[in-house]
Amino acid sequence: MEWAIIVVIVVVVFVFISLTVKIVPQQRVGVVERLGKFHRLLTPGLNILIPVIDHVRVYHDLRIQQANVPPQTVITKDNVQVQIDTIIFYQVVGPEQATYGISDYVYGVRNITTATMRQIIGKMELDETLSGREKISSDIRIALDEATEKWGVRIERVEVIDIKPPLDIQDAMDKQMKAERNKRAIVLEAEAAKQDMILRAEGDKQSKILKAEGDKEARIREAEGLRQAQELEALGEAKAIEAVAAAEKSRIQMLREAGLDEQVLAYRSFEALTEVSKGPANKVFIPSNAIETLGSIGAIGEMFKNKEGKK
After folding, report:
1. Contact, 85 vs 161, CB < 8 A?
2. How many alpha carbons lie under 13 Å from residue 218 in its C-beta half-sphere?
3. pTM exceeding the 0.70 threshold for the entire prediction
């Protein structure tokens, strides 16, 4: 009997403590009602409540949450059905409003997203829809912000994950894309061929220019070499003439210094003629001026004069 009383007391104490002491983790908050009316918020850490009188209505996670919106089929302005998947990122910033402003704010966010999406897509054509994900996300976020502000919920981001047109439209788009890519490939190939021809022509032009410049340079150098050779040859001839003249001048100077004047030379010449006249030839021709010169040498001159007279 005593053990039963002890167990009851322990259970009562445990229940009392559990109703009195509340430990709230970080980034969570509890909404406390006292006698059915909002009283206060439980903040992270240790909190003390009055059992039975105070009651924790709900706990909210203050971290950024995400909610997937089920794929929605909407109709574009040009009457094409597309299926859109969307995901919403939100955060509870007002726990009291999130508790009493709406029964289920996640459900409300999804419904507003669906309605807003249909309204936006209904004003856009298919091509605009396929290329306007950013605009769709922005418009949905603006519409959600206006509605969820009084719920204590802030929409952080809206992402349009996928937009799926009908299969026949997808096939047509695939064919159009392939045709566009083939066209682009043909254009690129033609552009490459054009560039190749231009580069080849430019290379051939540069090659001819370089060859012409090389030939010009070779001819210039050849002419310059020939001119220098002629100059050197003329210079050599001039120096040779100067050397001969100098040698002749030196020889004459040496003959003068040795006393070999014109009369001696004439005498030596006639000595040589005398030897010639002893040969088979019976006639010897002597210039008259030479005889006059020899006249100044006396008997020798007379001899040749007589011989001249005999002739």
Report:
1. yes
2. 6
3. no
